[in-house]
């Protein structure tokens, strides 16, 4: 009898486990199916989403709201986000506090703050009352920020050499122009403007979601050369127009490359090859996968300086740097209206940073050779010739650099 009872207990336990798993799977299935339906079945929620500027922002806000709505739904049945206003205010306050505490245990402080900020914006839009002070006190303090470092030219060159031609070219454009990953993948050939020996770029050109987002930046000559090689290859199998995406989707040329995939490919190289330092408390890296390229650009823009009365002054105007970075604020927007530079003036500012933006070893060594050659010619304003010893020393250094370049050209960077 005891054996039979034990078997019955085991069967009951297995049965309850199966039921629990089935109900869990059903909830997950319902949650996934609701991801695309909330904006269709909930007009009020859809209005809230339409107040957000970009498609990516709406997608991100929607993901957070689905998560929060699902959490509340597990406690008190609701069908859609706007049903939150039907819950008793005391109960809803407890649910919001429980969610905050749960997320504090699950994710980093910055992620919790972002999620609660999004939920708050929805609650305020829907005029759903809650105790702001209680929620604020529950929020975690910010941790020491990760990903503060920029890439070095050597690290960027390594990424370019070890990934595919498409990803490598995206990395070069990102680093030399400061574009965000979304702006890079959505570039069309019509967004490029030839100037000197390179291209100007109209970022977010004719963006229907936000026409005011458009701005001008540039790329280096070494990046232009790689882009031209890539384009010539495509022309052998495709008809390219100004409306063609530079980085189209493999399966549908009318769509651009997925920016999430771009980041994934770079992260893969970072984990397997670059081996960045990790803190024990976090899985984040000292260098952010794609944003680290923008940090490299920003660092290079601040590098040039001029000496005035024995003082080092930043060579590029800070407002111009902010324009190249695509930063927008009320102050910046006002400055753009009154502090306007034309295309060539912007390029002249950009040129000051080119020596610091060059990435490939060959390009940087060629620049050093040109600088050494210039020093050999004259010493001062009276054109006094440099001594033979100094000239010989400079020529030897030039020869060493030239031999290094020849070695690099034999290896060549593999953009395959």
How would you summarize the topology of this molecule?
Layout: H1 2-34, H2 38-41, H3 43-50, H4 55-73, H5 89-106, H6 109-125, H7 132-138, H8 153-162, H9 165-177, H10 181-185, E1 192-195, E2 198-203, E3 215-218, H11 221-235, H12 259-274, H13 291-301, E4 305-308, E5 311-314, H14 318-325, H15 330-338, H16 343-351, H17 354-357, H18 361-377, H19 388-411
Antiparallel strand pairs: 1-2, 2-3, 4-5
Model description:
This protein is mainly alpha-helical and 416 residues long. The protein is 59% helix and 5% strand. The chain is built from 19 helices and 5 strands. It has helices at 2-34, 38-41, 43-50, 55-73, 89-106, 109-125, 132-138, 153-162, 165-177, 181-185, 221-235, 259-274, 291-301, 318-325, 330-338, 343-351, 354-357, 361-377, 388-411, and strands spanning 192-195, 198-203, 215-218, 305-308, 311-314. It has a 3-stranded antiparallel β-sheet, sandwiched between helices. Strands 4-5 form a two-stranded antiparallel sheet. 23% of the residues are buried.
Write a brief structural summary.
This protein has 416 residues and is mainly alpha-helical. The protein has helices at 2-34, 38-41, 43-50, 55-73, 89-106, 109-125, 132-138, 153-162, 165-177, 181-185, 221-235, 259-274, 291-301, 318-325, 330-338, 343-351, 354-357, 361-377, 388-411; strands at 192-195, 198-203, 215-218, 305-308, 311-314. The protein is built from 19 helices and 5 strands.
């Amino acid at each position: 009898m005891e054996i039979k009872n034990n078997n019955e207990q085991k069967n009951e336990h297995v049965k309850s486990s199966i039921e629990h798993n089935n109900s869990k799977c059903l909830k997950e299935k319902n949650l996934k199916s609701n991801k695309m339906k909330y904006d269709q079945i909930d007009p009020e929620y859809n209005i809230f989403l339409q107040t957000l500027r970009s498609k990516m922002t709406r997608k991100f806000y929607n993901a957070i709201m689905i998560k929060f709505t699902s959490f509340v739904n597990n406690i008190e049945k609701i069908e859609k986000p706007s049903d939150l206003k039907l819950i008793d205010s005391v109960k809803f306050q407890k649910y919001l506090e429980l969610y905050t505490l749960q997320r504090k245990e699950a994710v980093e402080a910055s992620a919790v703050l972002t999620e609660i900020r999004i939920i708050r914006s929805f609650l305020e839009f829907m005029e759903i009352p809650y105790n702001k002070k209680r929620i604020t006190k529950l929020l975690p303090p910010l941790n020491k920020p990760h990903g503060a470092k920029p890439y070095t030219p050597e690290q960027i060159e390594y990424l370019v050499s070890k990934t595919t031609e498409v990803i490598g070219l995206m990395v070069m454009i990102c680093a030399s122009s400061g574009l965000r990953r979304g702006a890079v993948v959505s570039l069309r050939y019509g967004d490029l403007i030839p100037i000197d020996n390179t291209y100007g770029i109209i970022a977010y050109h004719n963006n229907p979601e936000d026409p005011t987002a458009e701005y001008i930046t540039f790329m280096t000559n070494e990046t232009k050369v790689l882009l031209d090689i890539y384009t010539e290859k495509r022309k052998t199998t495709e008809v390219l127009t100004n409306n063609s995406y530079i980085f189209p989707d493999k399966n549908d040329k009318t769509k651009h490359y997925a920016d999430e995939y771009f980041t994934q490919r770079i992260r893969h190289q970072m984990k397997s090859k670059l081996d960045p330092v990790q803190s024990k408390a976090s899985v984040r890296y000292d260098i952010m996968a794609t944003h680290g390229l923008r940090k490299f650009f920003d660092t290079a823009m601040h590098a040039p300086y001029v000496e005035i009365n024995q003082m080092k002054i930043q060579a590029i105007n800070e407002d111009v740097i902010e324009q190249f970075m695509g930063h927008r604020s009320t102050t910046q927007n006002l400055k753009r209206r009154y502090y306007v530079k034309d295309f060539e003036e912007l390029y002249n500012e950009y040129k000051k940073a080119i020596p610091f933006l060059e990435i490939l070893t060959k390009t940087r060594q060629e620049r050093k050779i040109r600088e050494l050659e210039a020093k050999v010619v004259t010493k001062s304003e009276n054109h006094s010739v440099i001594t033979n010893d100094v000239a010989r020393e400079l020529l030897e250094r030039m020869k060493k650099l030239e031999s290094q370049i020849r070695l690099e050209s034999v290896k060549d960077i593999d953009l395959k």
